[in-house]
Amino acid sequence: GTDLTQNFEFIQANGTVYPLTNGCTDAAACNYDAAATVDDGSCESLSCAGCTDNTACNYDDTATIDDGSCESLSCAGCTDATACNFDASATIDDGSCESLTCAGCTDAAACNYDDTATIDDGSCESLSCAGCTDNSACNYDASATIDDGSCESLSCVGCTDNTACNYDASATIDDGSCESLSCAGCTDNTACNYDASATIDDGSCAEVDVCGVCGGGGADSEAPVISGMPADIST
Predict the structure, then answer these.
(1) pLDDT tens digits for 14-28?
(2) For residue 72, which of 90, 96, 97 has the smallest C-alpha distance?
(3) Res. 168 pLDDT band, cuts 50 70 90
(4) CA spacing 20 to 30 A to 158: which of 1, 67, 78, 143?
(5) Cβ burial 174-189 (10 Å sphere, 16+ → b, else e)
(6) Taking Cα atoms as reference points, which of 152, 154, 183 lies closest to residue 167?
(7) DSSP of the chain, one letter per residue?
(8) How far apart are the first and last CA of the chain?
């Protein structure tokens, strides 16, 4: 028969001594000890429990026992980096990707540039905001952002001096044509040489002398009588 001797530290069988090792002998437990020969009741299944599905959001690569906690919602989203609603934190694509809400003109030089657009939808155009951007030109367009080469400086040139005879109220560029001769004359409507067409008084206004001559000097003088100055009619 077998000679079996056992105490608290070892077991002896047929002359061979086997040391007694306490531990968890349940291979399904988290703390299973393959070297244990005596189960000490320490087996537990919590410390290594978790989600063992590597496609789940909460996959735990250290878990060896699946605890049924696996879920696929917290990490779901759009995983397409070219989509408007791309979610960099998403690891599971939920089919929500779309390319409309962020579509627009991405050309900063275009009239309808959209600085919020990340996908170019081919709508860029350069006509609606084109015009003359030179603020010194006759046809300057303050709303234009693209110069179309239409600027010109002829249609608005003229005399911009409102005291000149040929003042042009519509002119915005002075062409040096201002003059003060063609409209000069006597502007005093009480004078005998009043000029209704004159807009600039040239100091020529005269009165009728005692002889009935406009601007005459009287009976003994040929000097003209200027308005506001009495004639010398002494003999």
Answers:
(1) 667 667 899 999 999
(2) 90
(3) very high
(4) 143
(5) eeeebeeeebbbbbbe
(6) 183
(7) ---EEE-SSEEEETTEEEE--EEB--TTSTTB-TT-SEE-S---SSTTEEB--TTSTTB-TT--EE-S---SSTTEEB--TTSTTB-TT--EE-S---SSTTEEB--TTSTTB-TT--EE-S---SSTTEEB--TTSTTB-TT--EE-S---SSTTEEB--TTSTTB-TT--EE-S---SSTTEE---TTSTT--TT--EE-S--B-B-TTS-BT---SS--SPPBTTS------
(8) 185
Cα angle at 48 between 45 and 49, to 5 degrees?
Answer: 75
pTM: 0.50
Distance set, CA 148 to CA 29, 121, 143, 200 (Å): 80, 24, 13, 44
Structure token pair of residue 149: 């080469």
Summarize the confidence of residues 135-164 as an average pLDDT. Answer: 96
One-letter identity of residue 139: N
The first and second tokens of residue 195, run together, are: 């000029």
Burial class (CB in 10 A: 0-12, 13-18, 19+), 203: exposed
Looking at residue 235, what is its pLDDT?
A: 36
Q: What is the mean pLDDT of residues 88-108?
A: 97
Using one digit for the tens of pLDDT, what is the confidence trace for 7-64? 445 666 666 766 789 999 999 999 999 999 899 999 998 999 999 999 999 999 999 9
Amino acid at 26: D
